[in-house]
Amino acid sequence: MSIAEVKKTTEHKMQKSLEALRVDLAKVRTGRAHIGLLDHVQVDYYDSMVPVNTVANITLIDSRTLGVQVWEKTLAPKVEKAIRDSDLGLNPASQGELIRVPMPALTEERRRDLIKVVKHECEVARVAMRNLRRDANATLKDLLKQKECSEDDERRAQDDIQKLTDRHVAEVDKQFAQKEAELMAV
């Protein structure tokens, strides 16, 4: 593996971490309903855990209510329980085959709790970036030990990896600031 490949691989992995953060932050709701909200909720379907959207049709009834239409009637109680037990703080109500999931209004306390969740997700992303930097630097040291690059090249590559890490961590911070502002807006 060459220095250029190490840099390229590290940058690609950091971009993937940023994408994962964007997906995680999209799940943190701001009071309005969106169908992606239930994507990570898992339901027991014949002894295997599957996402709700694979066993039901999720629609928007209005801006503050989701409708979950389960394809098999016997799954409705399981889906309702899975939504209730998720970390989203939702209280679904069953109406025959349709499960209505109203979005509760966000209180100041709930907004603070959501900001803590966002802060945790961002910190996980920062740690992932640092771990990628550590792995890249270890690979560079291995290249140096195997005499596949000079010490100067290794030092320059480590500096480039550090700049890459700093740039991606700054992007994480920017996303946190945007989500915090979005959550605190009334």
Automatic annotation (TrEMBL):
Annotated Gene3D superfamilies: 3.30.1360.40, Ribosome-recycling factor (1.10.132.20)
Pfam families hit by this protein: RRF
SUPFAM superfamilies noted in UniProt: Ribosome recycling factor, RRF (SSF55194)
GO cellular component: cytosol
A Gene Ontology biological process term: cytoplasmic translational termination
GO molecular function: ribosomal large subunit binding
Job of this protein: Responsible for the release of ribosomes from messenger RNA at the termination of protein biosynthesis. May increase the efficiency of translation by recycling ribosomes from one round of translation to another.
HAMAP family: RRF
Name of the featured protein: Ribosome-recycling factor
Native species: Candidatus Propionivibrio aalborgensis
Taxonomic lineage of the native organism: Bacteria, Pseudomonadati, Pseudomonadota, Betaproteobacteria, Rhodocyclales
Gene this protein is translated from: frr
